[in-house]
Design goal:
The complex is a heterodimer of chains A (366) and B (519). Chain A is an alpha+beta fold. Chain A has 2 domains: 9-236, Rossmann fold (3-Layer(aba) Sandwich), CATH 3.40.50.300; 244-365, RNA polymerase II/Efflux pump adaptor protein, barrel-sandwich hybrid domain (OB fold (Dihydrolipoamide Acetyltransferase, E2P)), CATH 2.40.50. Chain A has helices at 50-58, 100-109, 115-128, 144-156, 174-191, 202-208, 226-231, 236-241, and strands at residues 9-19, 25-35, 39-43, 65-70, 73-74, 86-88, 162-166, 194-199, 211-216, 219-224, 246-256, 259-264, 269-274, 283-288, 307-316, 320-327, 330-338, 351-354, 361-365. Chain B has 519 residues and is an all-alpha fold. Chain B folds into 4 domains: 2-57, no CATH class; 68-134 and 239-267, no CATH class; 137-231, no CATH class; 296-514, MetI-like (MetI-like fold), CATH 1.10.3720. In chain B, a hairpin with a 2-residue loop joins strand 1 (277-280) and strand 2 (283-286). In chain B, helix 17 (294-325) runs antiparallel to helix 18 and helix 17 packs parallel to helix 21 (385-408). The longest helix of chain B has 40 residues, at 18-57. Chain B is elongated. The chains are: A alpha+beta (366), B mainly alpha (519). At the A-B interface, loops of A face helix 22 and helix 23 of B.
Amino acid sequence: MSNTGNDGAFVEFERVQKSYDGENLVVKDLNLSMPKGEFLTMLGPSGSGKTTCLMMLAGFETATHGEIRLDGVSINHIPPHKRGIGMVFQNYALFPHMTVAENLSFPLEVRKMGKSEREEKVMRALGMVQMQDFAGRRPTQLSGGQQQRIALARALVFEPELVLMDEPLGALDKQLRETLQFEITNLAHQLGITVVYVTHDQTEALTMSDRVAVFDDGRIQQLAPPDELYEAPQNSFVAQFIGENNTLEGVVKEIKGNTCIVQLDNGDIIDAIPVNVTAVGERTKVSIRPERVEFDKGRLQADAHTLKAEVLEFIYMGDIFRTRLRVAGMDDFVIKSRNAPDQTRLVPGQQIEIGWLPEDCRALDA
Amino acid sequence: MTDTLDSGPVLAADGRPLKASLNRALRRQKMRSMMLIAPLLIFIMFTFVIPIGQMLFRSVENQIVSDVLPTTTQMLHDWDASTGERPSEDVFAALTKDMMVAVEKKEHTRLGSRLNYETTGISSLFRKTGRRVDDMGEVYTEQFTALDPTWENPVFWADLVALPDAAAALPQTLAAYASFSDTIISEDGDDPREEQPWNTVYLSLYQDLSAASAADLSALPAEVGVAQAAVGGFETQNLGDAFTKIDKDWSSVEVWETIHTYSPDFTNGYFLNSIDRQKTADGSEWRGEQQQIYLTLFVRTLIMSMTITISCILLGYPVAWLLANLPMRTANLLMILVLLPFWTSLLVRTSAWKVLLQQQGVINDIVVWLGLVADDNRLALINNATGTIIAMTHILLPFMILPLYSVMKTVPPTYVRAAKSLGATNWTAFWRVYFPQSVPGIGAGSILVFILSIGYYITPEIVGGTKGVFISNRIAYHISSSLNWGLAAALGSILLAVVMLLYWAYDRIVGIDNVKLGG
């Protein structure tokens, strides 16, 4: 029970590995450290190991190797019911044979709390999610959103310091999801609880979290605040996974400090900043966000390299225009431009030249 | 919208009321679904519902007594058993006539067996009487023929009863002659004009002539008048004594009381017998201690069925849980093991238990070998209640496991996880969260096992001995051995009613909605 963790870290994963069958690692060497009060999202495609991490933290799966610490104490061998971690499940997992109030009262009962205290806490928790009027209902008599609110209240009613959420909004429609996203983050900050949130919805991750851990292939690919994640992806997986992204493939020709020159496969030359390319001659995937591409020469730097492009498709999307171009022999290059009064509407067949600021173009691993 | 509100019923596009249109549209659908189920419905009606209804009807049906002894039962109406006297001569005269017909139709033995269920000895009494009844009243025949040989002539008789005035003057004679002619025509194919009437006809003639006045007979042939003048001096026969001579039981009040008690067309006698009571002239009374078996059997059947149900729950619940929670491949293998008994004949399985459980059987051998039991003190595991419970628990176990499994399969594992994350120990999570959700499966399995076992027959018959048999074995005995179908039907009806009652109680206490076979 020694405090071996970093100072200030509340939840820590240290060199954690997990294998179910003894042949494949589902989680490979996970290291993660969270301060108290943080809202951290584990984001990733299915099978990336994010849910397994959450289950190990909750205690439903045991780590094959490594140590998980909560508030400095190793919890590897503490059974789930003694960890005192609140959890919200994907399908709500409200007990169908109990009323809403009984569901909320359950964690307090198993903690041998007195009746009046229980009732007070249940009503306070229901108040937090504006569901006081539903105390006597059965879960099946509630809508999905209401059930989710109750599940949230139940995870909070025994005042845990850490709450885990496993894709809690996955089954709800878009509008309700947005409302609840807002409510959950508000509540978390208000109560000062630490939240580990698992989702495969990147919008949810970006809007809710203090930090996002992008999982793929059993590893954290990048752990960063949302803006950094979007604007400065560390590798091509993150760049592809978060937001829309244009990828051009080529070879590094020249590296000059924090800029480099990449020759695309068709011979064109572009400017980029080297993110994880280190040597000339290395193959690279260059990532440019669609909204950072300029086709108005006046807005580009004088010495910027430009590429010839042909407009293939113009899509009017209301707030933005989405234009698909053929660039460097590829048909899926997309640019987005704001629907402003002075904005040019491109016409299919039109020949244009496109360019960007070197810092918006990131040369990543191939 | 507003005009439809004003003008009453909503109309369809063609102006008819919408309700009527809807009904018409649905009628074809209903007809079609009726047609689909019709074959099964008809099959069930004719092979199941109607026969069972008839069978249940036998539990109160009692027409045989009044059918075979129509006049006797009528005459016996006014007889009072409490006097301790045998019935009057008139009753014996009626008995003579009824018996004569019954013997010719060979119905008296059936009636004898029927009444023998109520009072032992009646069967042989009827049989014995049947052999001698045709001599009854012979003394009158002889005296009539001695008076005038014409009385021997079948043609004279046939003409006499055909006369229009005969009916009023000689009512009993006519009735007796009618039974005589009907019987010989239907039973032997004989012509009444060629056969001398039975003694009972002469007996009736004697009775009629003794009661009639000369004026009544004026329209009839002269022979009748002559006979009427002579009957006053006839030698008479005391029929009661004559019957008693055949068998002294005919003077026994008990026999007559039985006939009297069972004269009505419907009786609750079978039901009274089913609960160890017997019908008496004024109500019913408990049978003697030694003769009481059915109540004990009913209670034993219920208690043992409950024991079997509870053992099935205890043994089946963990297995069903494993089935529902193991990985698919292992679970499928286990499922095959659960279903395996279904692929083996019930008789074979039960017989296997006989081999396993007997005193020199495998189980006893093992227990002795382990030194748990002395060799000279081997366990009695068969031919008693223990044997029945062991074998039936084994046989009915799949009926508990399958509904339990299908209900448990629908309980997501996240519920238990949620409970644990909320701080519940393994036991609390199981008892407060998992178990309540599996209760519908327990309900369904219990109803299935209990109802199956309450009517089980083969297994108790083979391994139950005398202490481990069920009421169903007794019903089977009455159906196939004692042939007392009425009693079997009454026992069956009671069993059916008990099951219905328990089902109703279950519905009230647990709620039948709380029964799930899956989903």
